[in-house]
């Protein structure tokens, strides 16, 4: 499963009710969570002592792989962030909808792969230490250049800033197209150009 060795596979159910009860989740959050998530399974715990040749880490001691069965493909990312917030562990989320999967991980922001056939979803453990494994997973899931001299966190923050700028530009362009007044249209166009210079 996900290319992981059999000896770390746990396949333990992770019940929504137990999660809600243990962490006292607000009703609005529960309802949103319920609307998106069908069930969860703790697929594996990656521990260096169980992987031959994998050294212990300075920062990462272990991490979990949590499979999340979705009721809809266009899920609300707040639900994954809710899980991450309350489970104080490093987690790779394997989201599943039908025959497709998307891998997610939280590192400064929620990072994710594109949707892919579930059989193609792989979590690679080939590295010297579990710290390196985790860094590689974050880089691969987030599409980050791990060979770059720019630190991973800075790359993520830059990309997040760029994503927000693009969203702002898209909103302003819609307003500009709908605007009837020439002066206001010109002002919106100027704002768009200033934002585009920051990209």
Report on the structure:
The protein is globular and about 65 Å long. It has helices at residues 16-23, 27-36, 77-86, 130-142, 152-178, 182-197, and strands at residues 9-13, 37-46, 63-70, 91-97, 100-107, 109-112, 116-117. 42% of the residues lie in helices and 22% in strands. With 199 residues, the protein is α+β, with helices and mostly antiparallel strands. The longest helix is centred in the C-terminal third of the chain and has 27 residues, at 152-178. The mean pLDDT is 92.
Short description:
Helices cover 42% and strands 22% of the residues.
Index terms:
single chain; 199 residues; alpha+beta; seven-stranded mixed sheet; 6 helices; 7 strands
Main sheet properties: 7 strands, mixed
Number of strands: 7
Shape: globular
Mean pLDDT: 92
Helix content: 40-55%
Low-confidence region ranges:
none
Q: Radius of gyration over alpha carbons?
A: 20 Å
Strand percentage, roughly?
15-25%
Derived from helix and strand composition plus strand pairing, the structural class reads alpha+beta
> Helical element count?
6
Distance between the termini: 40 Å
Order of helices and strands: EHHEEHEEEEHHH
Question: How is this fold's topology laid out?
Answer:
Blueprint: E1 9-13, H1 16-23, H2 27-36, E2 37-46, E3 63-70, H3 77-86, E4 91-97, E5 100-107, E6 109-112, E7 116-117, H4 130-142, H5 152-178, H6 182-197
Parallel strand pairs: 3-4
Antiparallel strand pairs: 1-2, 2-3, 4-5, 5-6, 5-7
Helix pairs in contact: 5-6
């Amino acid at each position: 499963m996900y290319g992981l060795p059999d000896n770390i596979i746990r396949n333990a159910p992770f019940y929504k009710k137990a999660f809600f009860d243990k962490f006292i989740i607000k009703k609005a959050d529960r309802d949103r969570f319920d609307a998106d998530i069908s069930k969860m399974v703790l697929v594996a715990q990656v521990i260096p002592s169980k992987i031959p040749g994998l050294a212990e880490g300075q920062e990462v001691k272990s991490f979990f792989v949590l499979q999340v069965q979705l009721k809809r493909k266009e899920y609300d990312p707040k639900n994954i962030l809710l899980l991450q917030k309350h489970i104080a562990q490093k987690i790779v989320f394997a989201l599943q909808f039908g025959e497709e999967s998307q891998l997610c991980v939280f590192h400064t922001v929620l990072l994710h792969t594109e949707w892919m056939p579930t059989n193609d979803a792989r979590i690679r453990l080939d590295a010297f230490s579990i710290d390196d494994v985790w860094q590689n997973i974050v880089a691969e899931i987030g599409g980050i250049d791990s060979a770059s001299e720019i630190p991973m966190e800075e790359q993520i923050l830059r990309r997040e800033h760029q994503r927000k700028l693009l969203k702002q530009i898209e909103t302003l362009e819609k307003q500009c197209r709908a605007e009837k007044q020439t002066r206001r249209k010109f002002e919106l166009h100027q704002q768009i150009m200033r934002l585009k210079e920051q990209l």
